[in-house]
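Per-residue structure
===
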Amino acid sequence: MNKKNSQWLFSALVVIGVIIKLFFLLQQKPLWWDTSVYIGMTKYITSGGAQGLWEPLRPPIWPLIISFFSFLGLPLIFFAKITQLLFSLGSVLLVFLIAKKLWGTEEARIASLLLLFTPVIVFYEGVMLTEIPAVFFGVLAVYFLVNEKYFLAGIFSGISFLTKFPMGLIFLGLVVSIISFKRNNILKLFFGFLIPVIIFLFVNFLIYQDPLLPLKEGSEIFEKSSWFYEKGSSYYFIELIKENVFFIFGLMGLFFLRKRKELALSLSFLFLFFYFGYIPHKEVRFYVLFLPFLALVSAKGIAEILKYKYSKFILFALIILFVPLAYGKFVDYYNFKVGFDEQYYSLIKNYDTKEALVSDPRFTLFSDKKLDLLYYKDYDEPTVMKKLRDAELVITNTCDIVCKNCEIKEKMFDYLKNNFATDYKEEKNNCTVFVFTRQT
């Protein structure tokens, strides 16, 4: 294929990829638990703490970004989705630029198309969680390192870390790669990283009197909830191949990464891959965090394979395999819906209190009340009982209280039934919904 036709084909595929993304993005689906948390945090920020909710364990960058739209009075969910799309397309562009800088146009096109057409990325753009923006900032950090802008690499690795805490491994990868070939620039990287991180720690100290509280709570919750998401050690290997069969060339690509600047790519991928592979808590959304780096190393592997005789027949066979597998994944993601009981969440509208104690953050989508939360570490008995004593309105669902060997659950409901009026009770799908109001 000549250069002109190759460029036209690449451009056409990019347009098709963007159309698929827009198609998914414009779906109107119930919002996820975590998405609702970020919307509640946005309300908290824009109201000065009078509305919404706050979870200290959440990294601050994503709720701060979407708070900008609330300050301007713009439709929050619509613009949050558009922002996710722009971050995702930005990652595709950065992957193209990194590959072109290191290897050439052919590898750049392959890497960007691998990322563009991987179904899980398309799906999570519409979910509006932290993974897509965290990935963008992480890839941007690597891009600046490859272009020898070490201070900027440090800044954006710090921002990536403050968008999704495990992305701090990107910074570790950059440090190791710089030590191996540009030691005199290590201070630039460190100073860049420390600027956003020190601001974060200082604000934590002012608010919580503990600069490390979000990291401590995040680690604690992650450890306590891991039992619910445990998967086998081969989970990511299998799921990644289901997402995109061309990722099998990633191992070969790693073998060919021998230049010093390529070390940042391989380490960013390997640190994230082995970290998430090691911990028991495994979810599909976690491998979104290292997909751009896997796309890059896979593109390198594919480009090397193309140098051999008959390799094009192998790639053609993989394309034939990729199309139905990717189509099946896209269909699965399109049809996927989380449980969402609008009638349950609307119960909060019936009460005039300024605050409520709830066991599900999605109540913030239906009310501007300030919400206190009855989940995560709050299963600790002294914390739970203090919250119950201070509450005027409690809305909970027995299925929201999910914990391993959780004795506090029974004590909590005993206290509520003895000290509150049961204003509403309904059995739904083997769960019991309660609204408790303080007895006067």
About this structure: Residues 76-102 form the longest helix (27 residues). The chain has two domains: 3-26+59-335, 342-438.
